[in-house]
């Protein structure tokens, strides 16, 4: 039996088949990050129903908001894993610059008996999910928590997310961007292409049309893919080295566009998972978002 459990959050966009496999095998827990529309929490709904509700809210211009996990929720998860016999936990979450979940995890870690190492992935979506997948598989064969933490940090540094959002309206409604900035973007028809650097959203390009934005997103993704394929990373035994593959393509209400984007990336994206952005992220991206994750 594995001795180290992994805890993450629903921003990780974990593929359904992996999540099902890990649920059966044990040693993985995920806390949900709540989403509300016009102040009403989306509770008791399936993932498909939540996705549909968020798409509808964006179409109708309703405010979609999110919140992080609470220390109490995380304490419950940590204590449950301790009762199941795990000797240590790595609790790894979306960027602390974008959510208070890491802070909540640190508070919770101080209030339980077993050792909990909290890691800020400084990323989100499958850029976090890919780390979780590789870390989960690595910890199946080790009981060394310190080494596992080092591996997690190396994995976080090796994965990259690039994304495009067609408008800042959803970010403005959710309070994640200043209204003045959103207005300027609308006036000049800016279609931001961005990445995550040191946990923060960094705009790399500001194209004026969607085709140009997707073209730049494609170029940036393939440039990083080629650089990653050179194999500069050296990891512990049992950890798959980065190869520059596009491991995931994300979308929000634009599946056909995402499929075309995946085709445009060519061979590096042939095996990529095609995944909707998780609700806690699509709440802020708005309709038409595209993202690529390279490892």
Automatic annotation (TrEMBL):
<dbReference type="InterPro" id="IPR003797">
    <property type="entry name" value="DegV"/>
</dbReference>
<dbReference type="InterPro" id="IPR043168">
    <property type="entry name" value="DegV_C"/>
</dbReference>
<protein>
    <submittedName>
        <fullName>DegV family protein</fullName>
    </submittedName>
</protein>
<keyword id="KW-0446">Lipid-binding</keyword>
<dbReference type="InterPro" id="IPR050270">
    <property type="entry name" value="DegV_domain_contain"/>
</dbReference>
<dbReference type="Pfam" id="PF02645">
    <property type="entry name" value="DegV"/>
</dbReference>
């Amino acid at each position: 039996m594995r001795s180290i459990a992994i805890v993450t959050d629903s921003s990780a966009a974990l593929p359904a088949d992996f999540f099902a496999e890990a649920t059966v095998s044990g040693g993985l827990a995920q806390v949900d990050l709540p989403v509300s529309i016009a102040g009403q929490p989306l509770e008791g709904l399936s993932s498909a129903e939540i996705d549909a509700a968020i798409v509808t809210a964006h179409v109708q211009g309703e405010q979609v908001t999110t919140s992080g996990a609470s220390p109490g929720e995380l304490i419950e998860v940590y204590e449950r894993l301790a009762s199941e016999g795990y000797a240590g936990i790595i609790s790894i979450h979306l960027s602390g610059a974008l959510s208070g979940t890491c802070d909540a995890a640190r508070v919770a870690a101080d209030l339980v008996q077993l050792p909990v190492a909290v890691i800020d992935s400084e990323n989100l979506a499958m850029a976090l999910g890919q780390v979780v997948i590789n870390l989960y598989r690595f910890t199946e064969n080790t009981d060394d928590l310190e080494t596992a933490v080092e591996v997690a940090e190396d994995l976080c540094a090796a994965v990259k997310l690039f994304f495009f959002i067609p408008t800042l309206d959803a970010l403005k409604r959710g309070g994640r961007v200043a209204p003045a900035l959103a207005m300027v973007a609308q006036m000049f028809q800016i279609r931001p292409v961005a990445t995550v650097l040191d946990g923060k959203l960094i705009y790399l390009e500001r194209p004026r049309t969607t085709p140009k934005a997707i073209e730049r997103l494609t170029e940036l993704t393939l440039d990083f893919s080629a650089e990653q394929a050179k194999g500069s990373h050296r990891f512990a035994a049992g950890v798959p080295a980065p190869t520059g593959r596009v491991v995931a393509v994300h979308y929000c209400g634009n599946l056909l566009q995402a499929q075309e984007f995946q085709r445009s990336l060519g061979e590096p994206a042939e095996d990529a998972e095609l995944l909707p952005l998780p609700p806690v992220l699509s709440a802020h991206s708005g309709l038409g978002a595209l993202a690529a994750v390279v490892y």
